Amino acid sequence: MEEFWNMRGINLFSNLSSEQIEEVLKLAPPTSYRKGEFIFLAGDAADALYILQLGTVKVSYIALNGDEKVLNIFRPGDIFGELFLGKYRHRIGEAQALDDVIVFKMCEETFLSLTQRLPQVALNFIRHLADSQRETLARTHALMRADARYRLAGVLLSMTRRYCCTDSDWFELPGSVTQEDIANMAGLNRSTVSSLINELRRDGILGGAGRSLHINRYAIEALLEDVGLEVLE
Q: 73, 95, 138, 153: which one has the fewest Cβ atoms less than 10 Å from its Cβ?
């Protein structure tokens, strides 16, 4: 029942009883993917949402010239692929496992039936979409800055806010997330991001060495607030 206890921390199922969560688990059996495998591809039918239970997943858009644009990176407890309830019925991006992952896949029909039986799930889903939009707007605000330092800081804050524990100033970015991924999300080149990371390490805002990256969430918030950029709290 390890999956059951991990599910209790997922916002989509907040305020549900143990019996209700067990009911949900029966409707969305876990599926495993190995590092590098694709969970869905652009053009696939958008008819399900995914709940990440283990590992890291990257969702990207591939431009016509073949360039990859990383849209988001997801960690355990995140929901992704949920934009299937509107008029667009096909995936515009692809989801790839950055390490070995386990996801719960819930098809559209099952999800809609679940929201009818458990209205709390529908309310939680609306809150999830509202929070996701706010995070996207805050990150977009930072990306509109011409200064690469603040664009990078906005991306790092977005990831830190979602994944950092509440009892520590510091958060270690998963090793499966590369500087190339971060550069892609910030709209910068790899060498610029590497240089800025070293600069922010000297300023005490970032820590770690080499591929190990530690982020001081309060220091990076202060950096953005000083130039009037949006933060989430």
A: 138
Q: What is the CATH number of the domain that holds 62?
A: 2.60.120.10
CATH number for the domain spanning 198: value is 1.10.10.10
Question: How does pLDDT run across 27-75, given as a tens digit for each residue?
Answer: 888 899 999 999 999 889 888 889 888 899 999 988 777 778 888 898 8
Amino acid at 160: T
What sections of the chain are H helices per DSSP?
Answer: 2-7, 18-27, 108-117, 119-143, 148-163, 179-186, 190-202, 217-226
Q: pTM for the full model?
A: 0.77
Residue with tokens 């239970």, as numbered in its chain: 53
| Distance in angstroms (rounded) separating the CA atoms of residues 213 and 178 | 10
